[in-house]
Fold this protein.
Amino acid sequence: MDDGSDDGSDELVKAYGKGDGRIRLLSPGRVGLVEALNLGIKAARTPFIARMDADDRMHPERLELQWRYLLDNPNIDLVSCRVSLFPEEIIKGGFREYIRWQNECLTPADLADEIYWESPVAHPSVMFRKQVIVELGSYRDGDFPEDYELWLRMVAAGKKMSKLKEILVDWREGENRLSRQDPRYSREAFDRLRGAYLARDPRLHDGRELVIWGSGRVTRKRVRHLLSYGFKVSAWVDVSPRKIGHMILDAPVVSPEWLMRKKRPLVLSYVVKHGARDDIKGTLEEMGYERGRDYLMVG
């Protein structure tokens, strides 16, 4: 799918396609990423579609392993794989930590329970069932990251995603990536999208109290996307003694010990500081809270 390239890559694809009917070049002009993706899906003649970007690297066995996995697991609608980053010399700590987390999300439960933290799969690493994606409405265009919105929509619809343990895609980092430049991939866009899907999540409508872990200014700014749908916070959890006892939106700031109650609330942790995430998960699980049932990590 040539989305208006001007670097000669269209001629390269044509050359590869001579005598090989598997390779077809589609050149609709500059239509934008979402339209290009949907045109590619529509044109595909197979039940499985593998996503790829022109500047990343795919390991030779990737397609076969993912294809066989979907054949052997008819209950799985999308399969990804672990990825590595390159070029190594420009990878920064935050992105490295994100990929470390992403590569730990392997099972359908991991991907569903961690979906509100960040996109749990790299877009160019996925293979999915065409029929499932088409029935869901394919990619949507809007002021949000199109891939993350689709994964959220799949989980909300009860579709299952999984990930192979092998590293089969090398994901290129660079300052020219859309995620670095386009406002659709900004922190605000991600927060707004998470808030919209969290507001529809059945776990927020089961009658339990809603508790937010984190009470700082940045956290409150991000939580407002969820609260705009009419949710009321029963308490804000914080480990800072100077914050405990304060009131935010008519709810008290409490210590983690407050959560050791007979009737557990649903805890949404909005703390994103490196290291704090694992500490919070450890504390909650020591109290008997179960990921996906009693608490969710929100990135």
About this structure: The mean pLDDT is 95. The radius of gyration is 21 Å. The chain is about 35% helix and 15% strand. The first helix runs from residue 9 to 17.
